Amino acid sequence: MRFAELVEYLKKLEATSKRLEMIDILSKAFSESSTSEIPKMVYIFQETLLPSFYDVQLGVADKLVEKAISKAFDVAIDKVKRANSSMGDIGLTAENFDGNSARSKLDVVRVYDDLFAISKISGEGSIEMKVNRIAELLGAMSPLEARYTARFLLGQLRLGVGEATIMEALSLAKSGNRGFKSELERAYNMSSDLGRVAEVFYEKGEAGIKKFKIEVMNPIKSALAERLNSAEEILAKLGKCALDQKFDGFRAQVHKNGNNVKVFSRNQEDITHFMPEIIDAVKKLKQDKLIFDSEALTYDEDTNTLYPFQVTIQRKRKHNIEEVSGNFPLRLFVFDIMLLNNRELINEPYLKRRQVIDELFSASGTISKSKIIITDSKEEFNKFFDETVGEGLEGLVAKKLDAPYSAGARNFNWIKIKRSYKAQLSDTIDIVILGYFRGRGARADLGVGAVLGGVYDDREDMFKTLTKVGSGFSEEQFKQLKRLLDEIKLYKKPTRVDAILIPDVWVEPKYVITVKADEITKSPIHTCGREGGSGYALRFPRAVSFVRTDKRAEDSNSVKEIIEMFEEQKKVALKP
Ligand code: ATP
Questions:
Q1: Which of 316, 356, 490, 551 is spaced 20 to 30 A from 76 at the CA atom?
Q2: How far apart are CA 422 and CA 407, in angstroms?
Q3: 395-400 and 241-246: which strand pairing?
Q4: Half-sphere exposure of 437 (CA within 13 A, CB side)
Q5: Separation of alpha carbons 526 and 538, rounded Å
Q6: 42 contacts 169 by C-beta, under 8 angstroms
Q7: Per-residue pLDDT reduced to its tens digit, 166-196
């Protein structure tokens, strides 16, 4: 496909916010592409060069693209800068100076490969080299092609196309209906690489996708847990089940292939470099190939204490990792296993997988297994819960004995129960920032006075508003928020946001913060769970974290969970 044709599709996508229209546009684009073009098209629609676990970044900033525009179209750099700051859009800036009248002869693969090559340029003189390469590319393009290329370079396409929408479009384009989406989703959950899934689908068809296998070094989407609040409810749901101690660290999915080891986060980001001591320990394991799921925690050898999330997460911000790992090493607690050599375990029942864990790992050392009991007795359940909480851990995750590993799904195969649920709304809530209100009065100087926060509605693939949060941030954090949010500000309401309350500035749904509140209440101005004119809102919300790097927008709490918490709160309130 010619790049000029792809750009026409991007233009159409930009002009609509209707999901069905998006599916239609995408599927037309896919049906006109060859198999080798498909993965690249998918990545472009996902607004990336490769899935994030590959850690490929364009490494291009505003200034660099301005320079490239100036060079490509032979205009003074000051003119380009002025145009960019007045239009506030690098795409329109490039388009504006592009005097080409004809479409380019470039095809999609060529443009993608060029962009990829640009991402690989590093070292001395790399800025100059990038400017030249981008200038050459833009110089060959029509104004519309330049518009989208410039935006892509800065990660500012902002088409608002969700992954579910891409999968439905792929299914429609290849099979003539949208029904194949669930098989695609399954493969995507097993590989976290939608481009690869699309390629297999195009090459080998439906049968190929059904046979899709996990592969070492390709992260599997994390299985997630539902929540319930008592042993009775959990045992009623699962019957006899395993109770696994819940550690409050960060998730680490470990992949080993011989001497090659990688670790991925809850969101499939490559976090290998944060944990040298863990990598050494994994390399020493005898098994050739492994994929296992675990929780990483900071461990103080002197006092034999595990530190909670807040301490552990600091590691991600430290530059002197070697030093930190010496003083406060990490320990992994293995709680699931998906691959052992050539044996795929992901679809085996939990009990079988646990047997493998018991054979491979001991209860102590850098890589130890988590501690479980198997029971159907309420008394044993409560005793183990109290013991676990007494050890300073968060609670338990109950696991269904015959369930497979539910990649990418939050369902009742895993049910968490945490100590904090016992009190009224003492659980925190993760919200995604959708916009901000400018500060007034004493806050005017800080730029941001409050943020509009929302939660994810997975049924509609939309974000719904839940609360306005203006407390809990320090002055410095407000200033930092302003900088971060201005980088992702939008000139209209994001496509996937449903709101009644309108902030001064909209932003791309990207940053998650954790808040605490006194209560969940009904409210006419928020769209979370809205029915008959009223939705849900938080009473006295305050931030208890700054922007979290371990969660994506879609990982905020869900509308469903807010409604559940509201119901639970009613129960607690009813108790004498
Ligand atoms: P939370 O904030 O409650 O951890 P979350 O949204 O990050 O929630 P959940 O699915 O709700 O994720 O809870 C499961 C998380 O708990 C996992 O992502 C994992 O990191 C952690 N965890 C700790 N110990 C275990 C365990 N034994 N089994 C499964 N998950 C565990």
A1: 490
A2: 29
A3: antiparallel
A4: 17
A5: 10
A6: no
A7: 999 999 999 888 888 899 999 999 999 999 9
DSSP-derived letter for residue 459 is T
How far is it, in rounded angstroms, from Cα 466 to Cα 457?
11
Does one domain contain both 446 and 413? no
Residues 283 and 380 in one domain: yes
Nearest Cα to Cα of residue 81 among 64, 60, 101? 64
pTM for this model (two decimals) = 0.76
State the helix-helix crossing angle for 108-120 and 38-45, rounded to 10 degrees: 60
| Whether residue 246 lies in the annotated active site | yes
With beta carbons less than 8 A apart as the criterion, state whether 295 and 247 touch: yes
For residue 423, the model assigns a pLDDT of 44
pLDDT value of residue 35: 93
Spacing of C-alpha 274 from chain mean position: 19
Same domain, yes or no: 493 and 511: yes
Task: Identify whether the C-beta of residue 43 lies closer than 8 Å to the C-beta of residue 189.
Answer: no
Q: Which residues of the chain have pLDDT under 50?
A: 421-423, 572-576
| Distance (Å) of CA 478 to CA 244, 367, 484, 541, 546 | 39, 40, 10, 16, 10
CATH at residue 514:
2.40.50.140
Q: Which residues pair with 337 in a beta bridge?
A: 292
Give every CB contact of residue 510 below 8 A, 6+ residues apart in sequence: 432, 433, 488, 552, 553
> Quick one: 416 and 470 in the same domain?
no
DSSP string, 30-77: HHTS-TTTHHHHHHHHTTSSS-GGG-------HHHHHHHHHHHHT--H
pLDDT at 573: 41
In 223-320 the beta strands, taken as DSSP E runs, fall at 224-227, 241-246, 250-257, 260-264, 289-300, 305-307
165 in a structural domain = no
Provide the pLDDT for residue 192: 96
Chain centre distance of CA 54: 14
Catalytic residue among 67, 221, 246, 418: 246
Closest ligand 1 atom, residue 244 Cα: 27
225 Cα–ligand 1 center, Å: 7
Quote the pLDDT of residue 302: 60
CA-224 nearest atom, ligand 1: 10
Pocket test for ligand 1, best of 221, 416, 555 (most atoms within 8 A of CB): 416
pLDDT of res. 539: 80
* Residue 336, H or E segment: strand 330-340
Cα of 224 from ligand 1 centre, angstroms: 7
What's the CA gap between 87 and 93, in Å, rounded? 7
Q: Name the DSSP class of 272.
A: G
Q: Are residues 306 and 433 in the same domain?
A: no
Question: What are the pocket residues of ligand 1 if the criterion is a CB atom closer than 6 Å to any ligand atom?
Answer: 222, 224-225, 244-247, 251, 266, 295, 335, 370, 397, 416
**Residues 425/229, Cβ–Cβ less than 8 Å:** no
Residues of 389-404 as b/e, b for ≥16 C-beta within 10 angstroms? beeebbbbbbbbbebb
Expressed as residue numbers, the domain containing 260 is 224-421
